[in-house]
Amino acid sequence: MSIPENQKVAVVTGASSGIGAASARLLANDGWHVVVAARRKDKLDALAEEIGGTAVELDVTSQESVDALAAQLPRVDLLVNNAGGAKGLEPLTETSIEDWTWMYETNVLGTVRLIQALIKKIEAAPDNSGLIINMGSIAGWSVYEGGSGYNAAKHGVRVISRALRLENHNIRTTEIIPGRVATDFSLVRFEGNEDRAKAVYDGQLNLVADDVAEAVRWVASLPNHVNIDRLELKPRTQS
């Protein structure tokens, strides 16, 4: 992987669309060399060419895939754990164990895999400047009907972020907590059903991916002695 010797490196997972892609663009504008990682390599290649970054195909549910990414990286100053998602909106008693498993593998264990694989490189960032940003959700703080599996998974991300802060790895750790954001999140949740996905956002005031990406960019721009423990953002009308 060819990266200029003195350029800071950010790794953004789930970067093929939505918040991940928007974050990669803003970080690149701030001077980071951004490694964009996700499963959809065709979209990653186009994004990497646009921002002057590097595209790496990544499946966060696969330890082999995560290890292969880590082996390619000469340095990591910032990890943005953005890969995640939800499936289904059924009552708890009707939910699919397969959907729960996917949500845990992607949101929780995927986050842990990336942290474990890259922590030594992040700790080695100059002047203790290493930073991990975990993409949480208001779903990790407030339970809603039909969201039990996703609520539980995002509560897990919340715990991961707090544990890292307590364990003091001489790095900074931030959980970003978005409310309702109009992306393809609901399209994944409803397995491509565009009508159901669109209904989630119709008639609502929503955040967009760039709003959350700006929070990522701002946290990453702060001096090394500043840690934002958690940053919650919602559309004005969401209480």
Automatic annotation (TrEMBL):
SUPFAM superfamilies: NAD(P)-binding Rossmann-fold domains. Keywords: Oxidoreductase. It comes from the Bacteria. One of its GO terms (molecular function) is oxidoreductase activity, acting on the CH-OH group of donors, NAD or NADP as acceptor. InterPro entries: NAD(P)-bd_dom_sf, Sc_DH/Rdtase_CS, SDR_fam. PANTHER family: ALCOHOL DEHYDROGENASE. Belongs to the short-chain dehydrogenases/reductases (SDR) family. This is SDR family oxidoreductase. It comes from Corynebacterium stationis.
